[in-house]
Design goal:
Elements (H helix, E strand, L loop, with lengths): L60 E3 L4 E2 L2 H9 L4 H16 L5 H4 L7 H19 L10 E5 L5 H10 L2 E5 L3 H10 L12 E6 L13 E7 L7 H11 L3 E13 L4 E4 L4 E4 L1 H11 L2 E7 L9 E8 L11
Parallel strand pairs: 1-8, 3-4, 3-6, 4-5, 6-7
Antiparallel strand pairs: 1-2, 7-11, 8-9, 10-11
Helix pairs in contact: 7-8
Length: 322
């Protein structure tokens, strides 16, 4: 979990002054015709040009030290370069290195906020329960449901939620000691579900390098990890992962939300995007918002959190889409 960045943007004042007035020349003074401008025919007033509003990617943001960026492009050029494979690799390696130094516990993976686990799972379950009955006949009962847990960490979301609703859950996590902990946590003897529900595969692969098997998943769950991906890799991942969805399948993205623009965390190399920023990326991914909901019950010092259900087809009238 991440706290809000408290750094304030520097305010910039534009000073304006009056033009000096001309000295009075007296009422008896007349300007010679030579200096009078000729009268021109009246001109039709021009219609003002429409000004395109700035997109969220063009709006400024800041980093965890309080430094300002004019826009997201400026930040990404500095952090991952422009086609610089080595610099981008350094970005991802620093993120992995950060999490390799975190203990494999609920409190560790939640950044010291382990006490929000219950509220997180409760809200996610409520959101899932609004989706399954609409997407699958009889809420998926009688169907072999399969989910992918992206950025699974120690298997917290799988154990507390997904494995109760899906017959198989695959876990995708690039931090090896987290994934080894997940194997233990999700061993059959440590689960309170029937043998028809299991953790099937454990992939120690970074999100930006993963390609799912075709049409394997009913739901691809992406929580608190997509902030580590640069925008181009965000788009590439979701485009590749679409092929991994079964017909009628969908993504669920749950993530921290900045009020506007973005906030860069320099310590773990991740970015918190605004709601509008996400929607612009969804559009570039060819995804539509089927449903979305705000997380409730978190401490005020944390970022706001949203849940998005995303589909590859435009939803029927009455649902969200972007």
């Amino acid at each position: 979990m991440k706290t809000k960045n408290k750094s304030k943007l520097m305010s910039h004042m534009i000073l304006s002054g009056k033009a000096p007035s001309l000295p009075s020349l007296g009422s008896h003074f007349q300007i010679p015709d030579l200096f009078l401008a000729p009268k021109l025919p009246a001109r039709r007033a021009r219609t003002p040009l429409a000004v395109r509003p700035l997109t969220q990617m063009e709006i400024g943001g800041l980093d965890s030290d309080g430094r300002e960026f004019r826009n997201a492009d400026e930040m990404w050029r500095e952090e991952v370069g422009d086609g610089d494979h080595q610099k981008k690799s350094q970005w991802y390696n620093k993120g992995i290195n950060y999490w390799e130094g975190v203990e494999a516990t609920v409190d560790g993976v939640l950044g010291g906020y382990g006490h929000v686990n219950e509220a997180d799972i409760k809200a996610s379950e409520e959101f899932l329960n609004t989706i399954l009955p609409e997407r699958f006949p009889d809420a998926g009962r009688g169907r072999h449901l399969v989910a992918l847990d992206c950025g699974s960490g120690i298997g917290r979301v799988t154990k507390n939620l997904l494995i109760r609703y899906f017959n198989e859950v695959d876990l995708l996590e690039p931090v090896s000691h987290f994934l080894e902990s997940a194997r233990v946590n999700l061993a059959p003897e440590n689960l309170m579900v029937s043998e028809l529900h299991k953790a099937a595969n454990f992939y120690c692969v970074p999100l930006q390098e993963f390609t799912p098997d075709a049409e394997r998943y009913d739901v691809i769950w992406v929580q608190w990890c997509i902030g580590h991906l640069a925008d181009d890799d965000f788009i590439s991942f979701f485009k590749r992962a679409q092929a991994g969805l079964k017909p009628g399948g969908l993504f669920v993205l749950k993530e921290n939300i900045a009020k506007t623009g973005f906030v860069l965390d320099k310590e773990d190399k991740s970015i918190t995007r605004s709601d509008s920023y996400f929607k612009e990326l969804f559009n570039q991914c060819g995804l539509y918002i089927y449903k979305m909901k705000d997380q409730k019950g978190f401490p005020d010092e944390l970022f706001a959190v949203k849940m998005y259900a995303l589909t590859t087809e435009m939803p029927r009238q009455g649902f969200y889409y972007y």
